[in-house]
Specification:
By secondary structure, the protein is of the alpha+beta class. The chain has one domain (6-89): Arc Repressor Mutant, subunit A (Orthogonal Bundle). 29% of the residues lie in helices and 25% in strands. The chain has three helices and four strands, in the order αββαββα. Strands 2-1-4-3 form a four-stranded antiparallel beta sheet. β3 (62-69) and β4 (72-79) form a beta hairpin.
């Protein structure tokens, strides 16, 4: 499998820590707005470029679900089972680290 950039690895690891990315897909003023969610610790916030998210999607390392937040449609991106396996293979998770899928 193709090697991931440092930014891609960072975002994938962050997603493996029970975090998600929400993208507004509703035709409104917030269309395209990205919200990082699920972070329990504000110091654990991650920054990334959209192309990093696009690449992880293209590689099948994230999954998408549609949710409504305050009546506005968002695409919720979280780590996929394939992404979890990738994290385990590259030893990005601390030993004993659990994640969701």
């Amino acid at each position: 499998m193709k090697a991931l950039s440092e930014d891609q690895q960072t975002l994938l690891f962050w997603l493996a820590q029970h975090n998600s990315v929400s993208v507004c897909i509703e035709l409104c003023n917030d269309i395209g707005k990205i919200i990082r969610g699920g972070c329990r610790d504000e110091t654990n916030e991650v920054t990334f470029q959209r192309r990093t998210l696009f690449k992880l999607k293209a590689l099948g390392l994230i999954k998408e679900d549609i949710h409504y937040i305050a009546g506005i449609r968002y695409l919720i991106c979280s780590i996929s089972p394939r992404g979890i396996e990738r994290v385990k293979q590259t030893n990005l998770l601390p030993s004993g680290g659990d994640n969701h899928a």
